[in-house]
């Protein structure tokens, strides 16, 4: 059997050797479909302007794409226009060079997304993308696939059906009934108003308002099993103080670190954020030249070492962080003794 030329079977691109103006029409139909999928509604005048044709030609072209199986709605009057309905046949998709490479990179890194069964779906999507790309882009994407690797985060993956069910509950503002396993393996039944999914360090977290505890909570998605059906609809709440991401980071800190403290760093938030562990410590602007830093470690002594390694001036309040303040003083004395200097005369970073 002879190979099928892409587009001929669909009736958009004429077979080789076909004479006449059909190639211009085919190009215009592809452009029309691309425009229709780029936004919800177009007027005939807008499409005519984009395609450099008359509104009469636009109407004729719309009938042509309908004949090819694309469901295009037309409405008249004020606010009327053409809408490509979802579902049915997928229209031809065209990518810019940057868009194609961005999709290829996303597919390359999906293994670190924390979703189960991602490898097979990624391979299938990559194969479809490869068939859509022109030769020069196909070569670039193949080069990327040949030389780029991602590090497996070695996390417990989230089943795709769990991810989809929780995402749907978030979007529909439906109360989520679920079983949740704590860090020690103990299971409990929860009723949660789900608001946002957050991805941090290879894990997915659900941020929601726990109805039984009447407070915001973050839940590791790989430990959560949704129950069906979902509960009643709810009115979305205002985000927790500091936003969704900060709530997740604080929850991670509680789980990871035995000792936590808040200090003032005498530098802007962007400078500090570039020097702290992503997803484990939290930075919040305070003044033009200072910021709050919520930090943690296995012990106060180790936290004092980590904070010193920032190489930035900071203030530790003995009233709010007494253990860290004491550990920093002891560390300063130890270093002073090691260097034969008097720590009380040095410009310390932990004023009382």
Question: What distinguishing features does this structure have?
Answer:
single chain; 352 residues; alpha+beta; Arc Repressor Mutant, subunit A; SH3 type barrels; 4 domains; five-stranded antiparallel β-sheet; four-stranded antiparallel β-sheet; 11 helices; 11 strands; elongated; disordered N terminus; disordered C terminus; transcription regulation; DNA-binding; WYL_dom; DNA-binding transcription factor activity
Explain what the structure shows.
This protein is α+β, with helices and mostly antiparallel strands and 352 residues long. It has 4 domains: 1-93, Winged helix-like DNA-binding domain superfamily/Winged helix DNA-binding domain (Arc Repressor Mutant, subunit A); 97-147, no CATH class; 160-240, SH3 type barrels (Roll); 257-345, Alpha-Beta Plaits (2-Layer Sandwich). Helix content is 39%, strand content 20%. The strands form 3 sheets. A 5-stranded antiparallel sheet has the order 6-5-4-3-7. A 4-stranded antiparallel sheet has the order 9-10-8-11. Strands 1-2 form a two-stranded antiparallel sheet. A hairpin with a 5-residue loop joins β1 (72-75) and β2 (81-84). The longest helix has 18 residues, at 322-339. The protein starts with 21 loop residues before the first helix and ends in a 13-residue tail after the last helix.
């Amino acid at each position: 059997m002879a190979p099928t030329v892409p587009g001929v079977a669909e009736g958009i691109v004429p077979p080789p050797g076909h004479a006449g103006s059909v190639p211009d029409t085919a190009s215009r139909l592809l452009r029309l479909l691309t425009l229709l999928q780029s936004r919800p509604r177009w007027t005939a005048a807008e499409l005519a302007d984009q395609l450099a044709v008359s509104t009469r030609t636009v109407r004729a072209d719309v009938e042509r794409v309908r004949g090819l199986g694309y469901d295009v709605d037309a409405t008249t009057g004020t606010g009327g226009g053409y809408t490509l309905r979802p579902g049915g046949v997928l229209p031809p998709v065209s990518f810019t060079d940057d868009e194609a490479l961005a999709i290829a990179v996303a597919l390359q890194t999906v293994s670190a997304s924390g979703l189960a069964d991602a490898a097979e779906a990624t391979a299938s999507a990559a194969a479809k993308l490869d068939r859509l790309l022109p030769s020069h882009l196909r070569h670039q994407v193949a080069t990327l696939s040949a030389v780029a690797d991602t590090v497996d985060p070695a996390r417990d993956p989230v089943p795709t059906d769990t991810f989809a069910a929780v995402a749907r509950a978030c979007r529909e503002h439906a109360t989520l009934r679920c079983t949740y396993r704590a860090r020690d393996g103990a299971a409990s039944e929860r009723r949660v108003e789900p608001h946002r999914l957050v991805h941090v360090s290879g894990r997915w977290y659900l941020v929601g308002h726990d109805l039984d505890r009447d407070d915001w909570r973050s839940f590791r998605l790989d430990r959560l099993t949704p129950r069906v059906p979902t509960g009643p609809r709810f009115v979305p709440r205002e985000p927790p103080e500091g936003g969704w991401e900060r709530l997740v980071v604080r929850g991670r800190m509680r789980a990871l670190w035995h000792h936590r403290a808040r200090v003032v760093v005498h530098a802007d938030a962007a400078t500090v954020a570039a020097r702290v562990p992503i997803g484990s410590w939290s930075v919040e602007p305070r003044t033009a030249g200072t910021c709050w830093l919520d930090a943690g470690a296995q012990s106060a002594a180790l936290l004092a070492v980590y904070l010193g390694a920032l190489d930035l001036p900071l203030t530790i309040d003995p009233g709010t962080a007494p253990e860290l303040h004491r550990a920093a003083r002891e560390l300063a004395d130890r270093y002073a003794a090691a260097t034969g200097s008097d720590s009380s005369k040095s410009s310390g970073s932990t004023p009382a």
